[in-house]
Write the structure tokens for this entry.
Amino acid sequence: MELLTIGAFAKATRLSPKALRLYDELGLLPPACVDPVTGYRHYAPEQVERARLVAWLRRLGMPLVRIRHVCSLDAGAAAGEVRAFWARAEAETAARRDLAAFLVDHLTRKDPAMSPSTPALSMRYAAASDTGLVRERNQDTAYAGSRLLAVADGFGDEGAPASAAAVRSLRRLETGGHPADGLLNVLADAVEEAERAVHDAVGSGAAPQQAGTTLTAMLWTGSQLGLVHIGDSRVYLLRDGELFQITHDHTVVQSMVDEGRITPEEAVSHPQRSLLVRALGRGADATAEMRLQDARPGDRYLLCSDGLPTVVPGDEIRRVLAAPGEPGAAVRELVALANGSGGPDNVSCVVADVVPGA
């Protein structure tokens, strides 16, 4: 068998000699042999295909550690890993696209020549929280006020005080006005305060590392809503008869869906569907999703803990929200639907309508 020099191998694989030396050091693509006198590397012709795969995966932006894992798999499993990697890359790109769109909108609003006049709007709202039919105690907290809407879903032995502390720390936002151009900074500070409040609330418990809470809240400015979201409670928007989920679940199962490992249909019954990857609590990733949401007359928002969408289909949620009536009636019916489906979890709902008026 005639071996290839590193130069010939680099030309055949479109990898530079420098890259080949790095991949050798990492154990990713070791040469077939190394001359003991000169130290020259030589490669076998059958290594070309693997090297080309490495080159293609690098062009995808895949980290070297993951490339090494992919190269250790058979073709079918390797294809699955590439599919999962690219699905996650697309999800991250979509998140950056949303941030870029927000920044463009945010900067445009700062330009007086381009700032549109905004009609006066107000909100009507209602909130309810229920223990359900299975749990012994309610670890949810729901709140609705003239400026703040919030739902928190506690977990662990100290889940109830954790959720209460998170929402209580945000209630100071009810006082005073918050201009839209500084709203996200206000929310970022509020999340830090909520995190400290949760740590204090669970610090004296028997297992503080296993207790915490989700937090999903919206702060009203009069024309926009600032959203902060951590965990798997949700925000839905009913606009022009269509229902949109405007938050992304921070769960292990949702990450698996994003990576293409399972389908959304499989996620519904997955045994780890409630396992969080972000939350407020000791040792948890408390990175919050934050953005501004333009409000329109006729919009209806629903904030809810996962006790509602886990057992009530999206079509039923849309039907209730689309029906005429005050927010209080919608809240009561949604809680009744969750309990009518077995009530396996605590359920909390906040419904808010955007209406014309000062």
User: Anything to note?
Assistant: Residues 75-109 form the longest helix (35 residues). The longest strand covers residues 121-130. The two ends are 84 Å apart (CA to CA). Residues 112-116 have pLDDT under 50 and may be disordered.
